[in-house]
Amino acid sequence: MTHVVTEQCVRCKFTECVTYCPVACFREADTFLVIDPAECIDCGNCVEACPADAIYPEGELTPELLPALEWNARLAARLPLATTHIEPLHDGEAWNGEPGKWHALPPEQAPRAPCA
Ligand code: F3S
After folding, report:
1. How many domains is the chain partitioned into structurally?
2. Please, is 76 exposed, middle or buried when counting C-beta atoms within 10 Å of its C-beta (0-12, 13-18, 19+)?
3. Which of 10, 49, 73, 104 has its CA 20 to 30 A from that of 3?
4. pLDDT range class, residue 88, cuts 50, 70, 90
């Protein structure tokens, strides 16, 4: 099992999560982070740390969030490690809680499974 970053991270990228991860499992894209499922030890420390409520245990993903499972695994394999807290995106607060953020991603960064 793994924890999974979901749509709500997109365009927020608050990065509080990385400071709570004991195994450095976060990987960084320009507008979001993902979790490498091969590294995650399922501690759950990052869940409460995220101001966007973007992180879920794999077993608690709703049908709308299930595309995130493949999304994290595929992108984590090619993104660099994220180990430090950085300033959030300049408009990150404005995007916090907005629906439909999967659709703000370019095709190469979007989940392959159909998204709600
Ligand atoms: Fe994203 Fe939340 Fe981390 S917005 S970068 S999962 S603290």
Report:
1. 1
2. buried
3. 104
4. confident
